[in-house]
Amino acid sequence: MTKTLTMVLMDPPYETETTTTALRIADAAMGKDHRVQVFAYEGAVNLTMAEQAPHPNPVKGTSVEEESHPTTKDWIEALYAAHGDQLDWINCGLCVDERGAGRTIHGPRRGGPGDFVSWMEASDQTLVIPTR
Amino acid sequence: MTSVLSVVSTGYRATIEEQDDTILWFTAMCSSAGVDVSVLLEGNAVNYLVTGHDVGGLRFGELEVEHPPVLDRDVADLVAKGVKIHYIREDLDALGVAEDRLLDGVTPVKRAELPVLFSNHGQIWRW
After folding, report:
1. Which of A117, B63, B88, B98 reaches 20 to 30 Å from B33, CA-CA?
2. How far is B93 from chain A, CA to nearest CA, in Å?
3. May I ask the CATH architecture of the domain B3-126?
4. CA distances from A26 to A21, A48, A89 (A)
């Protein structure tokens, strides 16, 4: 039976491992045909910024191509590619504005707490993953 | 609608930059949207209840923070909206803060009482 999971993310990219875990949970849930709705709050709106770019690694002496540095926007694009009809993603609009994070990959849309409340009401469960 | 207990477990998270606590702000928005939401302050966040917060005067060069956070006022505003505010008594004791310094309308909870508090809510959001 298909269920709907709402997740709130708060961490910005490249700060903690919780984002990796959260995206793995989302991927696993959608892999079992469940729906996932992500509300990105505060720093998490930076996860989907379109201008994230990979870089070389001077410590390892690797080029951009050799390093194949991951970006969170690529991971989230991959989730859309694999489960596009099961994933809905809203970036908190005020959080976007204060960070200048308006240019995102295709998929995420702008919203607010009212959208989160609507999601929460209609979801089977809500998972809050805050920053510390 | 299910009842929600919103647990603020990280105090003073970006409160200067945001000019408020983002979870108290989110709680106010949810309350206005009709969510039956209560708050539990944990750890250093219990200090939000101490009256007389004042971080005015902060400046960077010539740029002053004109509207610094007033966290006790923000909590009082939630109380006025009908949002129940709980705090963990042991965390207040750990800070050495006497209860007579707290704003009115808030409720202490012992850690041993948390399971009962949690069981009285449909969802627990621990921020």
Report:
1. B88
2. 22
3. 3-Layer(aba) Sandwich (3.40)
4. 9, 15, 11
